[in-house]
Amino acid sequence: AVIALATPCAKLTTIELGDCYNLTDAAAIALASHCAKLTSIGLSCCGNLTVDGVLALTSHCAKLTSIDLSSCTNRTDATVIAVATHCANLTSIDLTYCRNITDAGVIALATHCTKLTTINLRACRNLTDGAVIAIGACCAKLTTISMSGCYMITDAAAIALATRCTNLTNVRLNGCRKITDTAVISLATHCAKLESIDLEYCVKLTDAAVTALANHCDNLTSVGVGSCRSVTTIAVVELARRCPKLTRIGAPAINSDLVHMIKKINPNIIFRYT
């Protein structure tokens, strides 16, 4: 089907092939050969597509700005390097659950794709601070990053992002259990445009992190601090008071009286307890 589509559609710019489990390199090569104007392609869960298929696409489609390679456990650094080497205009990439990717692939991506604004590294469990520090050093236009479940990430990575990527609006660090107040304070201090930050299961956090967000990030609409057992209701109330745009808080259990009080401060807030 994809091969038949590619031949007459030379002007095609966007195609979503997510969950096309039987898609092979032959389809990717057909797209690459006939659809050189592609700017966005979704290949999530295309597990039969190899690095050869991705290389064909990236080498022929130089205008690519967005690519989704998520949920393909056979993706390796070779795939990411193929993207990085040929797609200098890339602004968005999703590598969620690409668990075989290491720092080498992400460093290549950061070095060659300096226009990146969005990168999803959720559950890329082999990544260390080195990968994120490279992103911070090279991708100053970054606005959105997910490192959820990258359990080796520490404060050093978050601080590198905070100090170099000051346009960040969306940050997900949930499950990064090595992250401490120091990282969140740095993000809050340097990234005043933050709209959403997920810190659930960052078990080392205390009220100091939440208070820093309250003091510096009044554009926040969503904050997750669920399962952060050292975060108290005092900090959550202050967050609600200081961030009038908040509509969602993921928090440890709060009693009904406090919920009522917070609702008086901001009736639009919805709580999610963890």
Could you explain the architecture of this structure?
This protein has 11 helices and 11 strands. With 274 residues, the protein is α/β, with parallel strands linked by helices. Strands 1-2-3-4-5-6-7-8-9-10-11 form an 11-stranded parallel sheet, with no helix packed on it. Helix 2 (25-34) links the parallel strand 1 (14-16) and strand 2. The chain is elongated, with a radius of gyration of 20 Å. The N and C termini lie far apart (45 Å).
Total number of β-strand segments?
11
- Output the number of helix runs: 11
Range of helix content: 25-40%
Radius of gyration over all CA atoms, rounded: 20 Å
The largest β sheet comes out as: 11 strands, parallel
Distance between the termini: 45 Å
* Anisotropy-based shape: elongated
Widest sheet, order of strands = 1-2-3-4-5-6-7-8-9-10-11
Element order, helices and strands? HEHEHEHEHEHEHEHEHEHEHE
Could you name the ranges where pLDDT drops below 50 across 5 or more consecutive residues?
none
- Structural class, by secondary structure, is alpha/beta
Rounded mean pLDDT score: 95
Approximately how much beta-strand content do the residues carry?
5-15%
